[in-house]
Specification:
Blueprint (H helix, E strand, L loop, with lengths): L20 H11 L4 H18 L1 H14 L5 H27 L5 E5 L1 H8 L5 E5 L5 H12 L3 E5 L5 H17 L3 E5 L6 H10 L3 E5 L9 E6 L2 E6 L1 H9 L3 E10 L2 E6 L12 H18 L11 E3 L8 H11 L1
Parallel strand pairs: 1-9, 2-5, 2-8, 3-4, 3-5
Antiparallel strand pairs: 6-7, 7-10, 8-9
Amino acid sequence: MTELKPRQVIRPSSGGSLYDARWTQLMVFILKRFPTSVCVILTRPAAFVFYLFARVQGHAVRANLRALFPDWSALRCWMGAYQVFNQFALTYLDRLLYRHCSRQVEWDVHGMEIFKQMQREAGGVLVFTLHSGNYDIGSSILAEHLERPLHIVRAPERSRPLDEFRAAELHDAASQQPFLRFHYNTPGGHLGIDLCRLLLAGEIVAVQGDRVVMDVSPLTVVHEGVSYTIPCGPLMLAETARVPCYPILLTRLGVCRYRSEVLQPFFTGQCKMKRAELAALWIPVMADFIHRNWNQWFVFEPMIQRVHDEPPLEGGSIATKGQACG
């Protein structure tokens, strides 16, 4: 098997911005010199300050919450968006504790039998995740317990210093966990072809199926009166490779404590389905998790909106077809 090397996009430095690597370096400096409890307490006001300055991202989060919960007041949405920023800061803190302070992470796995079922799959497997919990920690723990190579798809960071800082972190992670492989989704690349080859060769690939960033092609699907704009790439990959698609969804429970929900595959790969049909099977899984864990859905772009006249969907027939594949 050929191991692919990351192909990064070198972006202009954005000194002083929210994406400056110096913020992360400052956090690591503080974590190594103060008790974790103090750092957790300081996270709340720090997240509030970032929330006030990140006006574009804050507006997007509030728009998503209004679409999810139309009965919420403006104040409830405003405070809810802050909760999202605070939870994101806490998961980021966990990540730095894990990567730089050798802090152990506790995992509560829901669906261990399904996880073992996925582990026993003879061919390739496509893991669908969301921007929730902590993707970096989750991928390391998952690779450790799978005992099979796990290929993680990542997007480059938004500034050059942060890109370089994160690349060094991931290099260390890959050197400590031999089953962990990272691949970068860069504009103009051929990552989809490479990932399809890996799946057809029997490998496990993890993708995030909820956030449209950079030059990713979007796909819009309406579910229960809400329009979701999701990346088309993971669905195209499932359509082409025709492998089982297992959702694994992460939730933060406390300081370096997480829960992973391993669900039955929404697509078994035993029949041919179009990406729109696959989206109709994936969106209900994603929507259910987001409604239950809205404060841990870390999407800072306007991805969902409420629609007043929902067009008739063939949801019933599509779901029936998906189940028949099983």
